[in-house]
Design a protein that fits this description.
Chains A, B: InterPro entries: 6-PGluconate_DH-like_C_sf (IPR008927), NAD(P)-bd_dom_sf (IPR036291), PDH_C (IPR046825), PDH_N (IPR046826), Preph/Arog_dehydrog (IPR050812), Prephen_DH (IPR003099). Chains A, B: Keywords: Oxidoreductase. Chains A, B: One of its GO terms (molecular function) is prephenate dehydrogenase (NAD+) activity. The structure is a homodimer. By secondary structure, chain A is of the alpha/beta class. Chain A contains eleven helices and eight strands. In chain A, strand 2 (about 30), helix 2 (about 35-45) and strand 3 (about 50) form a beta-alpha-beta unit. In chain A, helix 6 (about 170-200) packs across helix 9. The two termini of chain A are about 35 Å apart. The mean pLDDT of chain A is about 95.
Chain lengths: ~280, ~280
């Protein structure tokens, strides 16, 4: 791994750069970001060596780590310019439309669709941390469509990042992620909104908030520039998950109205097992 | 602080005992719990010196740390048996019905209504930790109704716990807590249910869950034995908050259906400020 080019120098792109620098001393990383300030910060804090619009011809890997709606165009453009030995990977949070957009591209085998389940509620190059991916899940889609040698290169990188790999189809990916990621961001944003609205009457209400509230509302700090496109790209799956969630809340609400506390107790008891399933103790 | 009696030896009662032992060497703590096993564990792991149904006559403080629905009866019974120098305090998560239940009690001035905004999603004496209250908010209601000397005793304890005090009326307390505590427990339980239901079709879905999901669903591990009574006691306030939350989710859902991404972006951007308000960076 000698030359890497990163398009999008935010939390994911920046953290990827830091992890590679640690794992491959002497690596040369170039990059670009449509945000001028982020681009300059990325050089200043040493995420990349040089700002470059286009990757050098002998680049080992080009990573696209921009908001999902920009990825199909970028990906087609990048795939049109590379040579045979360059692997192209993206970190988009939805995968179906991206995979479909380059399905028939002559250089399809140079591409690998990836999604790291890693992030914080912060964004931008300054939020980058070298261990962001360590121990985290990385989902790969349509691995069979990537060239064998380039797959070898990819595995070298994944080992350096310390990720745990999962494999699934892009449609399945987008549906499941709507439930375990996109929905919890929306629930958190709306919890934040509900309390902020209440704050107009009770301005000191947040003084009463404990760590439980902070934990559930943490994701409401997430970037709208990242999340608006995810909602758009994954609209139908998100609507499915969101409607299920609203139905569950309304059913719970109705059980409170009906004073059906036995049912509420039993329901909460059944849900408790999610703690063990997620190893929340750890 | 020489003699303390604790009714309810769970997470709160147990952690209170540990904090007092640290702050007041030589203190003698007795206690009781309707759960036989918890009671014995509390002695075994050294939370209390001795199991006792009733406090000794010269006890400095009796703490009631049981589920909220049991507090009014226990409190009346305890207040009926104490001498003038004993302070009685409860840690119930709702305060209006409790304060009302002893409003006319001849020993009202021996009572102080308290609610520490502290806890974890675990319960029982083994979950007790000595620093649970350190740096946390503790809300006091109707402080003016407590005897001056006993208030002095209470302040000595609060200083030892390291809590930050807040003062408010019991009605205001219950309404605000519905928003910043009770609602986020329900939102978390229902998020857990939505994903568990989905798991019936996609049994590996939790393999895809990242730290964001874990954070929002953490409270779904909370004890139904604690939360069912809270929902019952604070029914009207919880319904108010829950209905606001459901309305906000439905509005967000409708904006997705209508592809109104500009509005969604702006909305999420406005909610972002809750991060700064809660100092979530820290």
């Amino acid at each position: 791994m000698k030359k890497v080019h990163i398009i999008g120098l935010g939390l994911l792109g920046g953290s990827f750069a830091l992890a590679l620098k640690k794992a491959f001393p002497g690596i040369r990383i170039t990059g670009t970001d449509h945000n001028q300030q982020h681009q300059e910060e990325a050089v200043q804090i040493g995420l990349i060596e040089e700002i470059k619009d286009v990757a050098a011809p002998d680049t080992d890997l080009i990573l696209i780590a921009t908001p999902v709606h920009t990825i199909p165009d970028l990906l087609r453009s990048v795939l049109g310019k590379i040579d045979k030995n360059t692997l192209v990977m993206d970190f988009g949070s939805t995968k179906a439309q991206i995979c479909q957009s380059i399905a028939d591209h002559p250089n399809r085998e140079n591409y690998l669709a990836a999604h790291p389940i890693a992030g914080t509620e912060f964004s931008g190059p300054k939020a980058a941390i070298d261990h962001l991916f360590s121990g985290k899940i990385l989902i790969l889609c349509e691995l069979e469509k990537t060239n064998l040698e380039l797959k070898g290169k990819a595995y070298e990188i994944f080992e350096a990042l310390g990720v745990k790999l999962r494999f699934m189809g892009p449609m399945e990916h987008d549906n499941q992620l709507a439930y375990v990621s996109h929905l919890s961001h929306i629930s958190s944003f709306m919890l934040g909104k509900t309390v902020l609205d209440k704050m107009e009457d009770d301005k000191n209400i947040l003084n009463m908030a404990g760590s439980g509230f902070s934990s559930t509302v943490r994701l409401a700090k997430s970037s709208p520039a990242m999340w608006t496109p995810i909602i758009k790209e994954n609209k139908s799956n998100i609507l499915e998950a969101l409607n299920q969630y609203i139905n569950n809340l309304m059913e719970f609400r109705d059980e409170i109205v009906q004073d059906d506390y036995k049912k509420l107790f039993k329901k909460m008891e059944e849900i408790n097992r999610i703690g063990n399933l997620l190893n929340l103790e750890k």
